[in-house]
Each structure stands twice: as structure tokens, then as C-alpha cells.
Known about the structure:
Shape: globular
Distance between the termini: 30 Å
Strand content: 15-25%
Radius of gyration: 14 Å
Structural class: alpha/beta
Number of helices: 5
Amino acid sequence: MAFVYDRCASRRGRARTELDMRLTGCHNYANATGWVLAGPHWIDQRADALSTQRPQLAAMLDAMRAEASRREVLCLVHNWGRLATDSTHLLILQQRIVEAGGFTVTTFDESDRHSIRAVLVGRLP
């Protein structure tokens, strides 16, 4: 089951169009891979999008956790920057997703399914 996440800090009108395009890309990618979508999507906006405490991400993680005991769950993002642009913050958020029972996939066929787990248990530098 795919949980679509994004964030949008900008208030510009063009930002909404870009967000809609990313979400459409996620939905199309999920359909192409045969993944069932969980709800429409979770989006942190404005200040929440830049914060370390993201309410929509936290809500999505709760939903993932509840579903993880029944089926495979993943967080689908357009690209890694939709989680965080800073590599340390990205790793922290990826860890939270793993702790919720899932892994992360981008619409560019990138996944941390195996690598993030290896890093978290100390098998990679």
C-alpha cells in the first residue's frame, strides 16, 4: 500500500501547480506499479513543510503503522527533496518511515527499501 507524501513551503500560485503535478506523478506511478493508494495524500504546507515536526507526515506515519501489520507499506514521494533537502534530515525522516514499518520510493524508481535498513543497523558506513 502506497502512502503519498509531499511538502510545499511556498505561497506562490505556481507552487500549487507544481505540487499538483508532483501528486499526479505519484498517483500515475502507483497505478503503473499496481500499488493501492492509501487515502489521497498527506501534505505539509508553509512553515510545517520546513519544520522537523511535520503534522501531516506524523499522521501519515500513524496510518502506515496501523496498516503495516496487515500488508507491505511504503511512502511514495516525487523525489528525495520532497522529504528533505538536507541529507541528515532526510536520513532522520527515512528512519521514521522504517520505524513505522515501511520504506520510501520515488517516482524516479529510487528506493531505500534495503539500503536504509542496512544503514540503520550499522552494515554500511
